[in-house]
Design a protein that fits this description.
The protein is mainly α and 220 residues long. It has one domain. It contains ten helices and no strands. Helix 2 crosses helix 8 and helix 3 crosses helix 7.
């Protein structure tokens, strides 16, 4: 019964962490509108896997992984920021509607890109730590069955959010014309480029106000 409670709380935690609108959400919506719902969900699934990996670190309190994340925070941000900027530039100069002949070739690329973008944001593990403490599951690491149930719940919750988001975008896809898709593409590119630039600025100038705001705190 306790494991089941941890599972449901994990679903809530995974859902909450996945909800904030960011570059992966914009990619999920854009790819669903431009291609199909599977492209959008593959993108979300990559983020869900990355969230689950960070949930494992938070649930078990794996100190050596937390140390690696902290010590290499600069490079995580540099890689993530560059990837986001390159994606944005590609979206700006590319066509908003991709040919259907390419649909079957891209799911892994969609998955991998979201996995890398989310995986290079170590602040996620802090978010899980705060949420786990808030909902009373910070002790999950004391028993394997609790931690496993919590982690499984996080994956289910995060995946459910991305399925919902891709599904809503798919429903709207029928009423979206070429002009609307062009503007959606531009807005998505602007948001993703902005996120990439801010992440790079935070890496280059960690002592700045923005850099301090999203800094990855040193493990105690």
């Amino acid at each position: 019964m306790e494991a089941l409670l941890f599972f449901f709380k994990g679903i809530a935690a995974g859902f909450i962490v996945a909800i904030p609108v960011g570059p992966v959400a914009m990619l999920c919506i854009r790819r669903t509108l431009a291609r199909n719902v599977m492209a959008g969900y593959a993108t979300g699934l990559g983020a869900a896997i990355a969230d689950t990996l960070y949930a494992i670190v938070a649930a078990y309190g794996i100190s050596f992984i937390a140390d690696i994340l902290f010590n290499n925070d600069f490079w995580f941000r540099i890689v993530g920021g560059i990837i986001l900027c390159l994606m944005a530039v590609r979206m700006i100069f590319g066509t908003p509607r991709e040919s259907k002949t390419q649909d079957t070739d891209k799911p892994f690329g969609d998955f991998a890109s979201a996995l890398v973008i989310t995986g290079t944001n170590p602040i996620t593990v802090i978010a899980f730590g705060v949420i786990f403490t808030s909902i009373g599951v910070a002790t999950a690491g004391q028993r394997y069955e609790w931690a496993e149930a919590l982690i499984a719940g996080v994956f289910v919750g995060s995946s459910a959010w991305w399925a919902f988001l891709a599904g809503i975008a798919a429903i709207c896809r029928r009423s979206v014309g070429t002009i609307s898709l062009t503007w959606i593409n531009r807005v998505s590119a602007a948001v993703i480029l902005g996120c990439g630039v801010l992440i790079l600025l935070a890496a280059i100038a960690p002592e700045s106000q923005f850099g301090t705001l999203i800094a990855f705190p040193e493990p105690s």
